[in-house]
């Protein structure tokens, strides 16, 4: 079966590994660039994008992920992982001077759901993941807002509160929520399918 890496700099690593295994993938925990070799796909988990950027810098991890992405590696970024995949971060001060993976033609704003909505759960219809009548339970934790889509190649597969919250662009998939925190793994299954195609 496919081999999917989970970037393990910081954040929700174990939950993604379990979700991927339940979706039929073999999983490799990835901490250094050499561990990207031979992967079909890579998950960049949620957590704290600024912390991940600091930990990644000394080993040039994001430069390495970017090179593999440009060579066709499928990448799934969730929450902080979406921030790291975005071409543009609206409030980039905290990430200034740090590499990101980039490649997804969207503009995101960190922690932008407002204090009352910092964390919330919603029943989210998602296109293309099967069982259209059964929404995904989506958990948002200090999530980034996708403010703008900058390419016609970006397909919005889910929207909540007037913003896209799950998007796909070629072999890139991103969600502003945490699909690894529930036991409904349809988005992981979708990614495993994308990585193998
Ligand atoms: N607020 C975090 C950040 O800016 C993202 C939160 C998350 O991944 N749950 O990186």
Automatic annotation (TrEMBL):
Pathway: Cofactor biosynthesis; pyridoxal 5'-phosphate biosynthesis. The gene is pdxT. This is Pyridoxal 5'-phosphate synthase subunit PdxT. CDD domains: GATase1_PB. It catalyses: L-glutamine + H2O = L-glutamate + NH4(+); aldehydo-D-ribose 5-phosphate + D-glyceraldehyde 3-phosphate + L-glutamine = pyridoxal 5'-phosphate + L-glutamate + phosphate + 3 H2O + H(+). The active site is at 79 (nucleophile), 178 (charge relay system), 180 (charge relay system). Keywords: Glutamine amidotransferase, Hydrolase, Lyase, Pyridoxal phosphate. One of its GO terms (molecular function) is pyridoxal 5'-phosphate synthase (glutamine hydrolysing) activity. In the presence of PdxS, forms a dodecamer of heterodimers. Only shows activity in the heterodimer. HAMAP family: PdxT. The keyword Acetylation does not apply. It comes from the Bacteria. The keyword Lyase applies. It comes from Nesterenkonia massiliensis. Its EC number is 4.3.3.6, 3.5.1.2. Catalyzes the hydrolysis of glutamine to glutamate and ammonia as part of the biosynthesis of pyridoxal 5'-phosphate. The resulting ammonia molecule is channeled to the active site of PdxS. Belongs to the glutaminase PdxT/SNO family. L-glutamine binds at residues 47-49, 110, 141-142. Pfam families: SNO. Signal peptide: none annotated. NCBIfam families: PLP_synth_Pdx2 (TIGR03800).
């Amino acid at each position: 079966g496919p081999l999917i890496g989970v970037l393990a700099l910081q954040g929700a690593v174990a939950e993604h590994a379990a979700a991927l295994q339940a979706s039929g993938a073999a999983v490799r925990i990835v901490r250094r660039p050499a561990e990207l070799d031979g992967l079909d796909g890579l998950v960049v988990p949620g957590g704290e994008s600024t912390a991940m950027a600091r930990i990644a810098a000394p080993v040039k991890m994001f430069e390495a992920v970017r090179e593999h992405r440009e060579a066709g590696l499928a990448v799934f970024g969730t929450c902080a992982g979406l921030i790291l995949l975005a071409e543009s971060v609206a409030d980039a001060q905290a990430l200034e001077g740090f590499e990101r993976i980039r490649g997804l033609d969207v503009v995101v704003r960190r922690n932008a759901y407002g204090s009352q909505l910092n964390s919330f759960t919603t029943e989210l219809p998602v296109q293309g993941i099967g069982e259209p009548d059964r929404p995904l339970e989506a958990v948002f934790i200090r999530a980034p807002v996708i403010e703008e889509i900058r390419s016609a190649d970006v397909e919005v597969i889910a929207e909540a509160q007037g913003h896209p919250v799950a998007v796909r662009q070629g072999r890139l998939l991103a969600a502003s929520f945490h699909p690894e925190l529930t036991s409904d793994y349809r988005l992981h299954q979708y990614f495993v399918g994308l990585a193998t195609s």
